[in-house]
């Protein structure tokens, strides 16, 4: 059990370094998801049985938190395949835009057609 507790504490220490994105609150943030997954695994006592697996997960999380690939392979361009910058992608994936898209799905088909036709003119 000591190995499991130590491994659990190491992973929690890494996840504490990872900042939670306030624009993706409510379960959409990756750190929140990982924290729930790790906590559930510790409660289910899978740390002791899969010690090597959790050790590999710790190393992978450490690379993510420290941005090792970002530092090792710097990007030359500021845009992505979508031609959006990182800041624009961040805005598109925010909770506000997701809520707006959900509200747009509630519009009737006729209203969508009218707005599409008026935007083309």
TrEMBL record:
Q: Signal sequence span per UniProt?
A: none
Localization recorded for this chain is: Mitochondrion matrix, Mitochondrion nucleoid
Q: InterPro entries attached here?
A: UQCC2
Q: Which UniProt keywords apply?
A: Mitochondrion, Mitochondrion nucleoid, Transit peptide
Q: Which GO terms describe its biological process?
A: mitochondrial respiratory chain complex III assembly
The main location class comes to mitochondrion
Organism's domain of life? Eukaryota
Q: Please give an example of a GO cellular component term from this record.
A: mitochondrial nucleoid
Which PANTHER family does this entry report, sorted A to Z? UBIQUINOL-CYTOCHROME-C REDUCTASE COMPLEX ASSEMBLY FACTOR 2
Q: What is this protein called?
A: Mitochondrial nucleoid factor 1
User: Which species does the entry assign this protein to?
Assistant: Dendroctonus ponderosae
């Amino acid at each position: 059990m000591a190995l499991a507790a130590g491994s659990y504490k190491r992973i929690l220490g890494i996840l504490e370094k990872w900042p939670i994105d306030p624009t993706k609150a409510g379960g959409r943030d990756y750190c929140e998801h990982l924290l729930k997954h790790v906590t559930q695994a510790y409660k289910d006592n899978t740390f002791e049985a899969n010690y090597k697996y959790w050790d590999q997960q710790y190393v992978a999380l450490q690379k993510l938190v420290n941005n090792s690939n970002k530092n090792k392979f710097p990007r030359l361009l500021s845009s992505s395949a979508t031609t959006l910058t990182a800041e624009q992608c961040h805005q598109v994936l925010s909770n506000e835009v997701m809520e707006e898209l959900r509200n747009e799905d509630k519009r009737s088909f006729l209203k969508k057609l009218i707005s599409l036709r008026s935007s083309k003119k």
